[in-house]
Write a structure and sequence with these properties.
- There is one protein chain.
- By secondary structure, this protein is α+β, with helices and mostly antiparallel strands.
- The protein has a single domain, classed as HIT family, subunit A, CATH 3.30.428.
- Helices cover 29% and strands 18% of the residues.
- Strands 1-2-3-5-4 form a five-stranded antiparallel β-sheet, covered by helices on one side.
- It is globular and about 50 Å long.
Length: 136
């Protein structure tokens, strides 16, 4: 087992654990971008959200919900982020939810500020994308 999060779950690597139940664990990020930067992960190893069984997905976001009030109390607002796959910026291939306290004077911005090359789509391209992504 080479997954660092699996090693935290099995207690092979120490972590500052904030909450734990049978299916999830929450701990302070070892490389925080803000004071209180927290991770919430499922104990089962899955790389992407869509790989999670529905019951584990529900438990994961139930833990996010439990943690959010505490995290939100630090600065008044919280960024909730999931990098879903390597190309999206996921550095550890184990589903994890970032809870990052945000304040009006931190150095981060809205999600749109992450992308320097903005795209423009025609109405036809938007319609095509809508048809391609629509769930029946």
């Amino acid at each position: 087992m080479s997954c660092i999060f699996c090693k935290i779950i099995s207690k092979e690597i120490p972590a500052k654990i904030l909450y734990e139940d049978d299916d999830t664990i929450s701990f302070l990020d070892a490389f925080p971008v803000a004071k209180g930067h927290t991770l919430v992960i499922p104990k089962e190893h899955h790389e992407k959200i869509q790989d999670l069984p529905s019951s584990i997905n529900q438990k994961l976001f139930s833990t996010v919900h439990k943690m959010i009030e505490k995290i939100d109390s630090l600065q008044g607002s919280t960024l909730i982020a999931v990098h879903n796959g390597k190309q999206s910026g996921q550095e550890v291939p184990h589903v994890h939810v970032h809870l990052i306290p945000r304040s009006g004077n931190d150095s981060a911005g809205p999600v749109h500020s992450m992308f320097t090359d903005k795209i423009e789509l025609t109405d036809a391209e938007i319609d095509s994308m809508c048809n391609e992504l629509k769930v029946n």
